[in-house]
Amino acid sequence: MAFKIGFAAEHPENKPAEVTYTAQQMQAAPRKSVVQVYFADRHMTLAYYNDQFDLHRGDMVYVDGKLEGMLGRVTEVNYNFKIKVSDYKRVIAVVDTTVNGQFFMAGSHFVTFDRAALPISKVVTWFKAPAKEDDEFVSGSDDTAFRLDDLSGMKVSAAIAERGHEYYIENKVRYICIDGTKGYAIVEGSEAYEVEFEYRDGEISQLICSCFCSYNCKHEFATMLQLKETLELISKHYADEYERTEYFAAVNKGTLFAFAIDGKETGSFTL
Asked: 22, 92, 97, 129: which is closest to 258 by C-alpha?
C-alpha cells in the first residue's frame, strides 16, 4: 500500500515540499508464527506465539501476559517451529500505522484537514492497547467554561500550570484534533492520557482527562496551550482549509515519523 504525506513549505521556486513513502500492504490472512517482540520501555525482547495476524518485522503489537498494555515492536518472525502453546503468551493486537493524506507544517506538529488522514480511532492505538470486551468506561463533567485566550479561567494552581507548561514545551501533547466542536488530545506522561473537550467560538467547556485528578490537571493545561498555538498557526497560514472542513488533526512530528515510517523495511521516502 502506498501513502503520501505532503508538507507545505515556502521554497524559492514557490513549490511545496512533498514527502512520499511507499510500503507493502500486509496480507489479510493470518499466518502462524513465533515472533520476537522488543519493548522499548523495558529494554527487553521476548518471544510470543501468533495465530491471529500476518506479522512482519517492524510491526507494532500488543501482547497478553505480564506486559499486557505495553507497546512492542516485532524484531523477528519465525514460521518454522514446533512449540507447546501453553508455554507462550500471544500477540493480541496489531497497530495500524498506515497514514494517507496531506500534512502541513504547524510548529512542532504536522496538521491535516482531512478526516481520513489520521483519525482518533487509529492514533489512540499507537499509545493504548485496545479495550477488552468487558472493559467499562464512564465519564462526567461539570458546567465550567473558560476562554482559550484567558487560561486563568481554568483556575489551576501555579504548580499545575508550571507542570502543564513543561509538558507543552516538551511536546508531550502528541496528538490533538477538533471535529466541529468536539476536541480530543493525547498527552503522554507516566502513561498516555486522553483529554476531551468542546470548543465553540474560542470557548472551552466539558473539559475532562482520563487521569485520576478530580480537578483541572497538567495534561489539560498542556492541551490548551497546544490548542492555542495550533489554532493561531492555522489562522495565520491555513484558515481557508480549516474553514472548509471544520476539522483539523495535529500530530507531533517525532510521533508521526516514529509510527508511520520508522521500522518499515521496504518502501521509499522522497523530499
From this structure: 97
Nearest to 250 by CA among 187, 175, 183: 175
Beta carbons within 8 Å of 27's beta carbon, 6+ residues apart: 54
Of 6, 16, 192, the C-alpha closest to 99 is: 6
pLDDT at 129: 87
User: At a CB cut-off of 8 Å and minimum separation 6, what does 170 contact?
Assistant: none
Relative to beta strand 2-8, strand 101-106 is parallel
What is the side-by-side order of every strand in the sheet holding 72-78?
Answer: 44-50, 33-39, 72-78, 60-63, 91-94
Tell me whether strands 192-200 and 203-209 are parallel, antiparallel or unpaired: antiparallel
Q: Encode pLDDT of 128-169 as tens digits.
A: 988 776 666 676 777 789 999 999 999 999 999 999 999 999
What sign has the CA pseudo-torsion 111, 173, 93, 80? positive
Contacts of 59 (CB under 8 A, 6+ apart): 26, 53, 73, 74, 94, 95, 263
Q: What are phi and psi of 27, to 5 degrees?
A: -70, 145
Strands (E), the chain: 2-8, 17-22, 33-39, 44-50, 60-63, 72-78, 91-94, 101-106, 109-112, 145-147, 173-179, 182-188, 192-200, 203-209, 247-252, 269-270
Among residues 90, 87, 14, 102, the alpha carbon closest in space to that of 48 is found at 90
